[in-house]
Amino acid sequence: MPILKTTSLKQSSLQLSQKIIDRNSEDNAVIDFEQHIQQLSDKEDEQSIDEFISLYKNLIKNVEQNLWKNTITDKKLGQYTTIFRALEKIQQLKSDDRRFDFKIIIPVADRPQHLEQCLDSLLTLCHNYEYGLTDGKFSKLSVLIADDSKQDINISQHQALCKRFDDKGIKTEYFGLQEQLSLVKKYLVEHQDSRLKQIISDAEHIDDTEHFSHKGASVMRNITYLKLIEDVNDNRIGAQTLFYFIDSDQEFCINSHTSDDKYYAINYFHYLDEIFQTQDVELLTGKVVGDPPVSPSVMANNFQQDVKKFIQSMAALEPGHHCQFHRQLNAQADDAAYHDMANLFGFDNRGKTFEFHCTLKGEHSNADCFSDFSDKLEHFFFGEHPTRKTFFNYEQGFTRTSPARTVYTGNYVIRADALQHFIPFATLKLRMAGPVLGRILKSKLEHRFVSANLPMLHNRTIESTGQSEFRPGVENEAHKINLGSEFIRQFYGDVMLFSIEQLTDIGYPHADISREITRSIIGSTCNRILESYIDKHDTILQLKRQISELLDDSDSWWHRQPSPATDLALGNFRTFLNNIENNFANDAQAYQQITSDQSSQRMQETLLQAIMDHKKDVIAWQRAVFQA
To answer: How far apart are CA 267 and CA 410, in angstroms?
Structure first.
């Protein structure tokens, strides 16, 4: 094959680019790049290769913008991924691929189905975009499964998944309880610093690994930081590696308000490499789309508003008529629409209600939809919100970053240097650990702490079964669900977050804030948040009564035209209301605890001590881990 001049090859590339992005040529769904790449390969010219990489990156931007202009289609997405695969082939022509490697860390506790779903999504993403694909292996990617499981059967399944995905071309390592326990004990014995116990747990007298399980996500991440630091120091991890922390109930894809499908439409590794290559970033956080990243204890008010609206709408319809709940979803802004206390975060969602979007396929009736919605009610107590999901919005692309103040601990990426910033207050096991860490890092890292529009799809339940796996703080026995522990963790997590926010505004953690000022801030914050919780609590109980009255209305078609399916659906609604009563009534355990002066004072002192000791924790971590 004759070797073309560079200018000639560029011209043919530009012509090919135009064909792809020209709407009139969209029927050319399959583009053959092989001849193009062969011509480039024959040149054996690093400068030409770099020029073509730049050319294809510009082409990708154009195709990407066209992809998101209107409704996304499989044809457009196929063209998009084809160009990325061509770019990978061009990258392989370079003598030295200096792009970042990625170590993907997935903490997991008794969630084999979630983990499998997560890893399947990673494999699909890898096959679609082929980042670092060499000789059938994804050489620039590896996975670390950090297992905090208690059940032996789940541990065995997690280990089997590691081997299975390792065999499929993604190097996958298992970090189990015994290795974790040995590592923690090593640091506690070597350094004899009691402050380390507040970061990686007190394992000094633990010998049985079962008693070292369910330590909590924050402690688990901190222990994993220790392992990563040792691997870096021992050169088991390359210097050009980024650490990508995700949650096991997430997938490497996104959703769209125009469809019930999910899309592998973001080449996460390509764009993260672009950002870290070209910007001065130490920690980058993405977000999530799909199910909310908060506890159901702060969603019961607005969800019941939507349940009430659904029942009112359904009562006005004929049960046998074609389902009327397939209207196109509205693309919601990221405005915490799912959060009862959105006002605490600067949003105002008062009075807003959202319609249920039916997900049944094929011919079905309003009565079928009524039953289907009732089946989803129990999912709410495990964190799913059937009416207020968050949808992906392309905005201004994937490489634009903005200053951040919250770390989404299920989706963040760090350089090795950032391993010095452990998750604070980990052993308290409070929710909102990411936002708390974010407020502290904002003052430390400043412009090097950013967010980017690189969300992952969040699923509280398993796609194939519609069921939930282990969720800390949620107990389920014979459909009686107790959120008590999670409710309390959420409440005091909020108190910690907004106390830290005020403290960082006056110089914490760099400045020494007095104990008296800190105690005052915690107390006033606790009172303010308790008022919000009490206000929502009263509304929750009012809505529960209103929903019950709507269901009991004898004029409704589900009473006039009863059927076994409808009776079962009504039973699901009543079980849901009973669980609302169990968790939000005046005598509910969690509500009693957060409104108890004695319990509140005790917990406020715990928060106070943790905040005052944080600087000591940082010193202990630096000495033990970095010999600082």
So the answer is: 18
- pLDDT tens digits for 555-606? 999 999 999 999 999 999 999 999 999 999 888 888 899 999 999 999 999 9
Q: What is the spatial distance between Cα 547 and Cα 312, in angstroms, rounded to a whole number?
A: 9
Tokens of 261: 């499908």
Q: Whole-angstrom Cα distance, residue 618 to residue 623?
A: 9
DSSP codes, 326-346: -PPPP---SS-TT-TTGGGGT
SS3 content of the chain, % helix, strand, coil (to 5): 55, 10, 35
CA distance 57 to 397: 13
User: What is the β-pairing status of strands 241-246 and 411-414?
Assistant: antiparallel
pTM of the predicted model, to two decimals? 0.90
Which residues, listed in sequence order, are joined to residue 263 by a DSSP beta bridge? 254
**Residues 29/78, Cβ–Cβ less than 8 Å:** yes
- CA-based torsion, 111, 113, 115, 117: positive or negative: negative
* CA 482 – CA 223 distance, rounded (Å): 29
* Residue 155: both structure tokens together: 């541990």
How many whole angstroms separate alpha carbon 445 and alpha carbon 424?
A: 16
Nearest alpha carbon to residue 175 among 123, 215, 126:
215
> CA-to-CA distance for 37 and 90, rounded, in angstroms?
7
pLDDT tens for each residue of 373-406: 999 998 888 888 888 888 899 988 899 999 999 9
**Domain boundaries, given as residue ranges, for the chain:** 6-91, 101-293+393-466
Query: Spelled out in words, what is the top-level CATH class assigned to the domain 101-293+393-466?
Result: alpha beta
- Output the CA–CA distances (angstroms, integers) from residue 85 to 53, 126, 233, 607, in the order listed: 12, 10, 34, 51
Nearest residue to 558 via CA among 375, 368, 304: 368
Q: CA dihedral in degrees (411, 415, 417, 420; nearest 10)?
A: 10
Name residue 262's beta-bridge partners. Answer: 255
